Amino acid sequence: MRIGSPKESKNHEYRVGLNVESVQGLVADGHQVWIESGAGAGIGESDADYRRAGAQIAATAAEVFEAVDLIVKVKEPSNVERRLLLPRHTLFGYLHLASDPEQTDDLQASGAICIAFETVTNDQGGLPLLVPMSEIAGRAAVQAAAVFLQKRQGGMGLLLSGATGVEPGNVVVIGGGTVGSNAARIALGLGARVSIVEKFPARRAQLRELLGPEVECAESTPEEIERLVVDADLVVGALLVPGGRVPHMVTESLVKKMKKGAVLADVCIDQGGCFETSRPTTHDEPTFIKHGVVHYCVANIPGTVPITSTKALNHATLPFIRELANQGIKRALERNEHLRRGLNVCRGHITYEAVAKGLGRDFIAPESGLQLL
Fold first, then answer.
1. Per the CATH hierarchy, to which homologous superfamily does domain 131-299 belong?
2. Strands, DSSP E only, in the chain?
3. Domain map of the chain by residue range?
4. Which of 33, 69, 170, 345 suits 22 as a labelling partner, its CA being 20 to 30 A distant?
5. CA angle, residues 192, 193, 199, in degrees to nearest 5
6. CA-angle at 331, arms to 327 and 336, nearest 5°
7. Are 107 and 130 in contact (CB under 8 A)?
8. 163 burial via Cβ count (<10 Å: 0-12, 13-18, 19+)
9. Which of 69, 89, 270, 295 is catalytic?
10. What percentage of the chain carries pLDDT values higher than 70?
């Protein structure tokens, strides 16, 4: 099969869909691989490195799209890239369509097969291609937010750890999954007081065992959320609805009650955000202030640590990429139910129910979508 990765186009996105190691594996399987020139520069992998691994170097993204059938990306394709998609293409990457009607329109219009990393599953019911980036995003979000609490960054001027004779900061994490537990772990490591809001009692018990008795694990009710948020110095939004939009857990009226100079870090902004006042930001302009509260809502947080992120992501995705390439797209999707659950758009149809529900659109089962191939 002909497989390729363009250089990522999102603001300060330095990850790459296929690193040199992945290319070596695919070439060893007998596939042809195209990489856009400079795609690996952000992780220290040169065009020469890719050539030695057996890849062909394309001058532009358009050349990659023209040459290949399977396109492996990290973040969703840009407007320009979406215009390059054809019905013969299969797109494999993070898509987060439920909060992006424009992208969904374009992917449907392309006729391409679009498989989302974030909805591929495993035998344990987990999301193996989302977990590594969720771990990194949760950890990196707290590191970034700690900086945004500084006065010169618009924050209140607070050190999360406190100091001798000075109380530490209060961190509230909304959601106790992979993002939330990792965010809590880093906040604890920085010396903050940490509370986690989690819906499920069994998960709250797990979090107490995982993180220790010093972490408050609160029930996810409006009353508990308000109690914790109004006293928080940092609130991390860490909810997940697989493939769908997350609900607004912190309303605008509650944001108005927060401390001036507090920070909201909305790690789930890709899914619409769990704070009513959130809107996507970029690494160039990562924050904005509303009602006196600093909002950090960057949609590609792991892109700031691309060496770690790319290694973790490629380790998780390569087995699925090889399956698609070695077996062929249709056969791989038919034989692997976990890969099939990643199918979000197929031949103009939405094939993931949570995406359709989030956008108020029609849905067909992925099995029905495969009949169109």
1. NAD(P)-binding Rossmann-like Domain (3.40.50.720)
2. 2-5, 32-36, 56-58, 70-72, 90-93, 113-116, 170-174, 193-198, 216-219, 234-237, 263-266, 287-290, 293-296, 343-346, 349-350
3. 2-127+306-370, 131-299
4. 345
5. 125
6. 95
7. no
8. exposed
9. 270
10. 100
Is 338 catalytic? The answer is: no
Say what the pLDDT of residue 58 is.
98
2-127+306-370 and 131-299 in the same fold: yes
Query: Which parts of the chain have pLDDT scores under 70?
Result: none
Q: Which residue has the tokens 């050190």?
A: 159
pLDDT tens track for 31-78: 999 999 999 999 999 999 999 999 999 999 999 999 999 999 999 999
Q: Is 270 a catalytic residue?
A: yes
Alpha carbons 343 and 360: distance in angstroms, whole number: 18
Cα(67)–Cα(74) distance, integer angstroms: 19
Q: Which helix (H) or strand (E) holds 316?
A: helix 306-327
pLDDT tens-place string over residues 244-261: 999 999 999 999 999 999
Query: Other CB atoms closer than 10 Å to residue 102's CB: what's the count?
Result: 9
Residue 35: its pLDDT value, please? 98
274: closest CA among 231, 301, 303, 244? 244
Q: How many residues does the chain have?
A: 373
At 287-322, the pLDDT tens digits run 999 999 999 999 999 999 999 999 999 999 999 999
The structure tokens 């390729």 sit at: 4
d(CA 21, CA 34): 14
DSSP annotation of 314 reads: H
Cα-based angle 45, 301, 94 (whole degrees, multiple of 5): 75
Q: Which of 96, 295, 338, 349 is catalytic?
A: 96
In angstroms, the Cα distances linking 128 to 192, 315, 338, 344, 366 are: 30, 10, 10, 17, 19
Q: What is the pTM of this model?
A: 0.93
Domain 2-127+306-370 has CATH 3.40.50.150: no
CA 106 to centroid of chain Cα atoms: 20
CA distance 279 to 288: 9
What does each C-alpha distance from 350 to 75, 93, 330, 337 come to in angstroms?
19, 16, 17, 17
